Amino acid sequence: MSQAAHKQKKTKSKSLVKSDIQPQNAKEHTSSFIMSWSCKHEQKKRKIRIQHTGETSVKYVGLQLWNASFLLCDHLLSNPSIVENKVILELGCGLGFNAIILAKCLSIKHIFATDNVASVLTQCKKNIELNKLNDKKNNKISARWLDWSRGNELLSKLTEKQFCVGNDHHWTKKDNQIVSLNDQKIDIIIGSEVIYDHKTSDILFDFICDIFRKYPDIIILLSNEKRLIFNEMTLVDEFYGYEQFIKNIQTCGNITLLDPTKSKSQTVKKIELVKIDWTNIPQTSQYERHKYLELIMLKLV
Ligand SMILES: C[S@@+](CC[C@H](N)C(=O)[O-])C[C@H]1O[C@@H](n2cnc3c(N)ncnc32)[C@H](O)[C@@H]1O
Protein backbone atom coordinates (compact mmCIF):
# COMPACT_ATOMS: atom_id res chain seq x y z
CA MET A 1 0.00 0.00 0.00
CA SER A 2 1.34 3.47 -0.83
CA GLN A 3 2.31 5.96 1.87
CA ALA A 4 -0.89 7.89 1.31
CA ALA A 5 -2.96 4.77 1.64
CA HIS A 6 -1.07 3.79 4.79
CA LYS A 7 -1.98 7.10 6.36
CA GLN A 8 -5.65 6.39 5.60
CA LYS A 9 -5.42 3.05 7.29
CA LYS A 10 -4.91 4.62 10.72
CA THR A 11 -8.20 6.46 10.57
CA LYS A 12 -10.41 4.16 8.63
CA SER A 13 -11.68 1.77 11.34
CA LYS A 14 -12.54 4.73 13.51
CA SER A 15 -14.41 6.45 10.74
CA LEU A 16 -16.94 3.65 10.48
CA VAL A 17 -18.45 4.53 13.80
CA LYS A 18 -17.44 8.05 14.80
CA SER A 19 -16.35 10.53 12.19
CA ASP A 20 -18.85 12.75 10.49
CA ILE A 21 -16.77 14.41 7.81
CA GLN A 22 -18.61 14.92 4.56
CA PRO A 23 -16.80 14.30 1.27
CA GLN A 24 -16.56 17.96 0.34
CA ASN A 25 -14.46 18.60 3.49
CA ALA A 26 -12.35 15.49 3.21
CA LYS A 27 -9.03 15.41 1.43
CA GLU A 28 -8.66 13.48 -1.80
CA HIS A 29 -5.59 11.43 -2.62
CA THR A 30 -4.51 9.52 -5.68
CA SER A 31 -2.60 6.36 -4.84
CA SER A 32 -0.85 4.00 -7.23
CA PHE A 33 -0.74 0.28 -6.67
CA ILE A 34 1.52 -2.13 -8.48
CA MET A 35 -0.22 -5.48 -8.75
CA SER A 36 2.31 -8.22 -9.36
CA TRP A 37 1.21 -11.81 -9.81
CA SER A 38 2.06 -14.93 -11.75
CA CYS A 39 -0.19 -16.50 -14.33
CA LYS A 40 0.64 -19.75 -16.12
CA HIS A 41 4.29 -19.43 -15.00
CA GLU A 42 4.48 -15.91 -16.37
CA GLN A 43 5.09 -12.96 -14.08
CA LYS A 44 2.61 -10.13 -14.66
CA LYS A 45 2.49 -6.56 -13.44
CA ARG A 46 -0.13 -3.81 -13.72
CA LYS A 47 -0.31 -0.34 -12.27
CA ILE A 48 -3.65 0.76 -10.87
CA ARG A 49 -4.43 4.35 -9.89
CA ILE A 50 -7.19 5.11 -7.44
CA GLN A 51 -8.48 8.47 -6.32
CA HIS A 52 -9.83 8.15 -2.80
CA THR A 53 -10.76 10.16 0.27
CA GLY A 54 -9.37 10.16 3.80
CA GLU A 55 -11.82 10.05 6.68
CA THR A 56 -15.51 10.04 5.85
CA SER A 57 -18.82 9.65 7.58
CA VAL A 58 -20.40 6.18 7.53
CA LYS A 59 -22.55 7.14 4.57
CA TYR A 60 -19.45 7.75 2.44
CA VAL A 61 -17.26 4.85 3.58
CA GLY A 62 -17.19 3.78 -0.05
CA LEU A 63 -14.83 6.70 -0.78
CA GLN A 64 -12.09 5.10 1.31
CA LEU A 65 -9.74 2.24 0.51
CA TRP A 66 -10.18 -0.97 2.49
CA ASN A 67 -7.77 -3.83 3.19
CA ALA A 68 -10.37 -6.51 2.57
CA SER A 69 -10.55 -5.57 -1.11
CA PHE A 70 -6.83 -6.24 -1.52
CA LEU A 71 -7.35 -9.72 -0.12
CA LEU A 72 -10.30 -10.44 -2.42
CA CYS A 73 -8.23 -9.34 -5.44
CA ASP A 74 -5.30 -11.52 -4.34
CA HIS A 75 -7.63 -14.50 -4.25
CA LEU A 76 -9.01 -13.83 -7.73
CA LEU A 77 -5.62 -13.05 -9.27
CA SER A 78 -4.35 -16.36 -7.90
CA ASN A 79 -7.44 -18.23 -9.09
CA PRO A 80 -8.36 -16.49 -12.36
CA SER A 81 -10.69 -19.28 -13.50
CA ILE A 82 -13.21 -18.15 -10.88
CA VAL A 83 -13.94 -15.05 -12.98
CA GLU A 84 -12.58 -15.85 -16.45
CA ASN A 85 -15.18 -15.11 -19.16
CA LYS A 86 -17.73 -14.48 -16.47
CA VAL A 87 -20.29 -11.75 -15.88
CA ILE A 88 -19.65 -10.48 -12.38
CA LEU A 89 -21.87 -8.42 -10.12
CA GLU A 90 -20.02 -6.50 -7.44
CA LEU A 91 -21.97 -5.35 -4.38
CA GLY A 92 -20.96 -2.13 -2.60
CA CYS A 93 -18.12 -1.42 -5.02
CA GLY A 94 -16.96 1.84 -3.43
CA LEU A 95 -14.08 3.30 -5.42
CA GLY A 96 -14.15 0.47 -7.95
CA PHE A 97 -10.79 -0.96 -6.87
CA ASN A 98 -11.82 -4.63 -7.22
CA ALA A 99 -13.70 -4.10 -10.47
CA ILE A 100 -10.81 -2.13 -12.01
CA ILE A 101 -8.31 -4.83 -11.08
CA LEU A 102 -10.48 -7.57 -12.53
CA ALA A 103 -11.11 -5.60 -15.75
CA LYS A 104 -7.44 -4.65 -16.11
CA CYS A 105 -5.69 -7.84 -15.03
CA LEU A 106 -8.01 -10.75 -15.83
CA SER A 107 -10.05 -11.99 -18.79
CA ILE A 108 -13.49 -11.27 -17.47
CA LYS A 109 -16.53 -10.83 -19.68
CA HIS A 110 -17.99 -7.90 -17.77
CA ILE A 111 -18.21 -6.54 -14.26
CA PHE A 112 -21.07 -4.44 -12.94
CA ALA A 113 -19.67 -2.43 -10.04
CA THR A 114 -22.70 -1.40 -7.99
CA ASP A 115 -23.35 0.83 -5.01
CA ASN A 116 -26.23 2.82 -3.56
CA VAL A 117 -24.44 6.13 -3.02
CA ALA A 118 -24.40 8.37 -6.08
CA SER A 119 -21.21 10.28 -5.15
CA VAL A 120 -19.43 6.98 -4.56
CA LEU A 121 -20.44 5.78 -8.02
CA THR A 122 -19.29 9.07 -9.54
CA GLN A 123 -15.88 8.55 -7.93
CA CYS A 124 -15.87 4.94 -9.13
CA LYS A 125 -16.45 6.20 -12.68
CA LYS A 126 -13.59 8.71 -12.31
CA ASN A 127 -11.32 5.85 -11.29
CA ILE A 128 -12.45 3.77 -14.25
CA GLU A 129 -11.42 6.70 -16.48
CA LEU A 130 -8.18 7.22 -14.58
CA ASN A 131 -7.27 3.64 -15.48
CA LYS A 132 -8.37 4.09 -19.10
CA LEU A 133 -11.06 1.46 -18.85
CA ASN A 134 -13.86 3.65 -20.17
CA ASP A 135 -13.64 2.59 -23.82
CA LYS A 136 -17.26 2.96 -24.93
CA LYS A 137 -17.16 0.20 -27.53
CA ASN A 138 -15.27 -2.47 -25.69
CA ASN A 139 -15.71 -1.68 -22.06
CA LYS A 140 -15.73 -4.43 -19.50
CA ILE A 141 -16.77 -2.46 -16.50
CA SER A 142 -19.87 -0.43 -15.65
CA ALA A 143 -20.66 1.51 -12.50
CA ARG A 144 -24.35 1.08 -11.69
CA TRP A 145 -26.75 1.93 -8.92
CA LEU A 146 -28.03 -0.96 -6.85
CA ASP A 147 -29.43 -0.87 -3.34
CA TRP A 148 -29.55 -4.17 -1.45
CA SER A 149 -32.71 -3.07 0.32
CA ARG A 150 -34.47 -3.30 -3.05
CA GLY A 151 -33.55 -6.98 -3.19
CA ASN A 152 -37.03 -8.28 -3.87
CA GLU A 153 -37.29 -6.36 -7.10
CA LEU A 154 -33.75 -7.14 -8.15
CA LEU A 155 -32.63 -8.11 -11.60
CA SER A 156 -35.97 -8.63 -13.26
CA LYS A 157 -36.42 -4.87 -13.31
CA LEU A 158 -32.91 -3.48 -13.27
CA THR A 159 -33.30 -1.34 -16.34
CA GLU A 160 -36.40 0.39 -15.08
CA LYS A 161 -36.10 3.98 -13.93
CA GLN A 162 -36.83 3.35 -10.25
CA PHE A 163 -33.46 1.62 -9.92
CA CYS A 164 -31.53 4.75 -10.86
CA VAL A 165 -30.28 7.76 -9.03
CA GLY A 166 -30.02 10.46 -11.67
CA ASN A 167 -29.08 9.58 -15.21
CA ASP A 168 -25.44 8.87 -14.56
CA HIS A 169 -25.69 5.49 -12.93
CA HIS A 170 -28.74 3.87 -14.42
CA TRP A 171 -28.85 0.41 -15.96
CA THR A 172 -29.13 0.41 -19.73
CA LYS A 173 -30.64 -1.81 -22.39
CA LYS A 174 -27.12 -2.88 -23.32
CA ASP A 175 -26.57 -4.07 -19.73
CA ASN A 176 -29.68 -6.10 -20.19
CA GLN A 177 -28.08 -7.88 -23.13
CA ILE A 178 -24.83 -8.54 -21.28
CA VAL A 179 -26.58 -9.92 -18.26
CA SER A 180 -29.15 -11.73 -20.42
CA LEU A 181 -31.66 -10.99 -17.73
CA ASN A 182 -34.11 -13.45 -19.11
CA ASP A 183 -31.55 -16.22 -18.76
CA GLN A 184 -30.52 -14.81 -15.41
CA LYS A 185 -26.94 -14.87 -16.49
CA ILE A 186 -24.84 -13.34 -13.79
CA ASP A 187 -22.13 -15.86 -13.05
CA ILE A 188 -20.62 -14.72 -9.81
CA ILE A 189 -21.15 -12.09 -7.13
CA ILE A 190 -18.34 -10.45 -5.19
CA GLY A 191 -18.11 -7.88 -2.42
CA SER A 192 -15.43 -6.60 -0.08
CA GLU A 193 -15.90 -4.87 3.24
CA VAL A 194 -19.66 -4.84 2.82
CA ILE A 195 -20.54 -6.07 6.33
CA TYR A 196 -19.74 -3.33 8.80
CA ASP A 197 -22.68 -2.66 11.06
CA HIS A 198 -25.87 -4.36 12.20
CA LYS A 199 -28.10 -2.56 9.73
CA THR A 200 -26.05 -3.30 6.61
CA SER A 201 -25.46 -6.82 7.87
CA ASP A 202 -29.21 -7.56 8.07
CA ILE A 203 -30.05 -5.86 4.78
CA LEU A 204 -27.25 -7.73 3.02
CA PHE A 205 -28.33 -11.05 4.50
CA ASP A 206 -31.92 -10.59 3.24
CA PHE A 207 -30.61 -9.52 -0.14
CA ILE A 208 -28.33 -12.56 -0.39
CA CYS A 209 -31.32 -14.81 0.36
CA ASP A 210 -33.19 -13.11 -2.49
CA ILE A 211 -30.23 -13.62 -4.80
CA PHE A 212 -30.09 -17.33 -4.00
CA ARG A 213 -33.81 -17.67 -4.66
CA LYS A 214 -33.26 -16.21 -8.12
CA TYR A 215 -29.83 -17.68 -8.81
CA PRO A 216 -29.62 -21.02 -6.94
CA ASP A 217 -26.34 -21.94 -8.63
CA ILE A 218 -24.51 -18.71 -7.97
CA ILE A 219 -21.37 -18.37 -5.91
CA ILE A 220 -20.89 -15.32 -3.70
CA LEU A 221 -17.40 -14.35 -2.61
CA LEU A 222 -17.02 -11.85 0.22
CA SER A 223 -14.01 -10.49 2.05
CA ASN A 224 -14.18 -8.57 5.29
CA GLU A 225 -12.12 -7.04 8.02
CA LYS A 226 -13.67 -7.95 11.36
CA ARG A 227 -13.78 -5.08 13.86
CA LEU A 228 -13.92 -5.78 17.57
CA ILE A 229 -16.21 -3.21 19.17
CA PHE A 230 -17.66 -2.96 22.68
CA ASN A 231 -21.43 -3.38 22.52
CA GLU A 232 -23.00 -1.05 25.08
CA MET A 233 -26.27 -2.99 25.01
CA THR A 234 -24.87 -6.44 25.72
CA LEU A 235 -21.70 -5.23 27.49
CA VAL A 236 -19.48 -7.59 25.48
CA ASP A 237 -16.90 -7.11 22.76
CA GLU A 238 -18.18 -8.28 19.40
CA PHE A 239 -17.27 -8.22 15.75
CA TYR A 240 -19.65 -5.45 14.85
CA GLY A 241 -22.19 -6.62 12.29
CA TYR A 242 -20.06 -9.52 11.09
CA GLU A 243 -20.93 -11.99 13.87
CA GLN A 244 -24.60 -11.28 13.27
CA PHE A 245 -24.22 -11.86 9.53
CA ILE A 246 -22.50 -15.22 10.09
CA LYS A 247 -25.14 -16.22 12.66
CA ASN A 248 -27.92 -15.28 10.23
CA ILE A 249 -26.35 -17.43 7.52
CA GLN A 250 -25.92 -20.37 9.89
CA THR A 251 -29.31 -20.22 11.57
CA CYS A 252 -31.66 -18.65 9.01
CA GLY A 253 -29.96 -19.58 5.76
CA ASN A 254 -32.66 -21.96 4.50
CA ILE A 255 -33.85 -21.05 1.04
CA THR A 256 -37.08 -22.36 -0.41
CA LEU A 257 -36.84 -22.85 -4.15
CA LEU A 258 -39.97 -23.16 -6.21
CA ASP A 259 -39.99 -25.31 -9.31
CA PRO A 260 -41.53 -23.10 -12.04
CA THR A 261 -42.50 -26.15 -14.10
CA LYS A 262 -44.48 -27.86 -11.32
CA SER A 263 -46.92 -25.96 -9.20
CA LYS A 264 -46.62 -26.55 -5.46
CA SER A 265 -43.28 -28.30 -5.93
CA GLN A 266 -40.52 -26.85 -3.79
CA THR A 267 -37.15 -27.77 -2.36
CA VAL A 268 -35.40 -26.31 0.62
CA LYS A 269 -31.68 -25.69 0.34
CA LYS A 270 -29.23 -24.26 2.80
CA ILE A 271 -26.66 -21.52 2.36
CA GLU A 272 -23.27 -23.05 2.98
CA LEU A 273 -20.57 -20.77 4.30
CA VAL A 274 -17.01 -21.79 3.48
CA LYS A 275 -14.17 -19.89 5.12
CA ILE A 276 -11.30 -19.73 2.66
CA ASP A 277 -7.86 -20.12 4.15
CA TRP A 278 -5.98 -17.21 2.60
CA THR A 279 -2.66 -17.68 4.37
CA ASN A 280 -1.09 -19.34 1.32
CA ILE A 281 -2.57 -17.01 -1.29
CA PRO A 282 0.28 -14.96 -2.78
CA GLN A 283 0.13 -11.27 -1.91
CA THR A 284 0.03 -9.26 -5.13
CA SER A 285 0.38 -5.75 -3.68
CA GLN A 286 1.49 -4.11 -0.44
CA TYR A 287 -1.05 -4.01 2.36
CA GLU A 288 -1.26 -5.26 5.91
CA ARG A 289 -2.53 -8.80 6.30
CA HIS A 290 -3.75 -9.70 9.77
CA LYS A 291 -5.92 -12.23 11.56
CA TYR A 292 -9.05 -10.10 11.36
CA LEU A 293 -9.27 -10.42 7.58
CA GLU A 294 -11.74 -13.04 6.37
CA LEU A 295 -12.57 -14.45 2.98
CA ILE A 296 -15.79 -16.42 2.66
CA MET A 297 -17.68 -18.20 -0.09
CA LEU A 298 -21.45 -18.69 0.03
CA LYS A 299 -23.33 -21.23 -2.05
CA LEU A 300 -26.48 -23.29 -1.85
CA VAL A 301 -26.22 -26.96 -0.96
C1 LIG B 1 -16.80 -0.10 3.51
S1 LIG B 1 -17.31 0.28 1.88
C2 LIG B 1 -16.41 -0.90 0.93
C3 LIG B 1 -16.18 -0.45 -0.48
C4 LIG B 1 -15.39 -1.41 -1.35
N1 LIG B 1 -16.09 -2.65 -1.56
C5 LIG B 1 -14.02 -1.66 -0.79
O1 LIG B 1 -13.76 -2.75 -0.30
O2 LIG B 1 -13.18 -0.76 -0.84
C6 LIG B 1 -18.98 -0.38 1.82
C7 LIG B 1 -19.71 -0.05 0.54
O3 LIG B 1 -21.00 -0.66 0.57
C8 LIG B 1 -21.96 0.28 0.08
N2 LIG B 1 -23.29 -0.02 0.65
C9 LIG B 1 -23.70 0.05 1.93
N3 LIG B 1 -25.00 -0.26 2.05
C10 LIG B 1 -25.44 -0.53 0.79
C11 LIG B 1 -26.72 -0.88 0.25
N4 LIG B 1 -27.79 -1.02 1.02
N5 LIG B 1 -26.80 -1.08 -1.08
C12 LIG B 1 -25.71 -0.95 -1.87
N6 LIG B 1 -24.48 -0.61 -1.43
C13 LIG B 1 -24.35 -0.38 -0.10
C14 LIG B 1 -21.42 1.62 0.59
O4 LIG B 1 -21.95 2.73 -0.10
C15 LIG B 1 -19.93 1.44 0.38
O5 LIG B 1 -19.52 1.84 -0.89
TrEMBL record:
Pfam families attached to this UniProt entry: Methyltransf_16
Signal peptide interval: none
PANTHER family: METHYLTRANSFERASE-LIKE PROTEIN 22 (PTHR23108:SF0), METHYLTRANSFERASE-RELATED (PTHR23108)
Compositionally biased region (Basic residues): 1-15
Organism encoding this protein: Reticulomyxa filosa
Entries under InterPro entries matching the protein: Methyltransf_16, METTL22, SAM-dependent_MTases_sf
Lineage, uppermost ranks: Eukaryota, Sar, Rhizaria, Retaria, Foraminifera
Coiled-coil boundaries: none
Name by which UniProt lists this protein: Uncharacterized protein
Region span, Disordered: 1-29
A GO MF label: protein methyltransferase activity
One Gene Ontology CC term in the entry: nucleus
